[in-house]
Write a structure and sequence with these properties.
The chain is an alpha/beta fold and 231 residues long. The chain is built from seven helices and 15 strands. The radius of gyration is 16 Å and the shape is globular.
Length: 231
């Protein structure tokens, strides 16, 4: 069941392990990430709970083009008509419908990406994002965080000081960077996270439970510890 992460931000569990987020603003809703092929069902269900329509989604921002974030994207665009935004470094990934051969650092990750069930229906990006962009009307500031993938972004919701991490950080029981074999360039990840602001009030993860209140102190301390051990 969906829940409110922060003022104007709703977490949508698209599976037991995966989350998307709705950001409410004056012109309508911005969706952050989609999910696997069945994710549109959960997203539309949340819209119905909120008394909103599919057409209320005015844009979809993708944190990165991995199947667990974009596999349901084609169907969702058909249902909503919303434009899709992604970092310019992963526009071709979205359009080609799969992670390219050089998109993972580990042999296991590259092998997984060859499986048809991890591909998606290709779709074109309507707008490409770069570091520092403010996504129209949403209050979301783009922070480019390469490592997990070349065009990975995290999003800072400036009105509520909420960070949406995509896969830059996982929170499955404990905070972590995720498997190195599934990252494009694992060595970049810690340096990218050093760019995250330290005055947050809430953090939402694509994979794992959100953090608020005292949990934010733990998140900041974890980031500081990573930075302290960075080569």
């Amino acid at each position: 069941m969906s829940d409110q992460l922060a003022p104007g931000i709703i977490r949508i569990p698209t599976t037991r392990r995966d989350n998307a987020f709705l950001v409410d603003a004056e012109d309508g809703l911005t969706l952050v990430d989609v999910g696997w092929a069945d994710a549109p069902r959960a997203i539309l269900g949340t819209l119905a709970e909120l008394g909103r329509k599919p057409s209320d989604i005015k844009r979809v921002v993708i944190t990165h083009a991995h199947p667990d974030h974009v596999q349901g994207a084609y169907d969702l665009r058909e249902l909503t008509g919303a434009p899709f935004l992604i970092h310019e470094a992963e526009r071709t990934w979205l359009e080609n419908g799969r992670v390219p051969g050089a998109g993972r650092s580990g042999a296991a990750g590259r092998l997984l990406d060859r499986l048809p069930k991890l591909h998606w229906r290709p779709l074109s990006a309507d707008q490409c994002l770069v570091d520092g962009d403010l996504v129209e009307a949403s209050g979301l500031r783009v922070i480019h965080t390469p490592g997990h993938s070349p065009g990975h972004i995290v999003l800072l919701h400036e009105p509520s000081s909420t960070l949406l991490t995509g896969d830059a950080v996982f929170h499955r029981g404990e905070l972590g960077l995720g498997p190195a074999a599934l990252a494009a360039d694992p060595a970049l990840r810690t340096g990218s996270l050093a760019r995250i602001p330290r005055d947050l009030k809430a953090v939402g993860f694509a994979h794992g439970a959100a953090l608020t209140g005292r949990g934010i102190d733990d998140f900041h301390q974890w980031l500081d510890a990573l930075e302290a051990h960075r080569p």
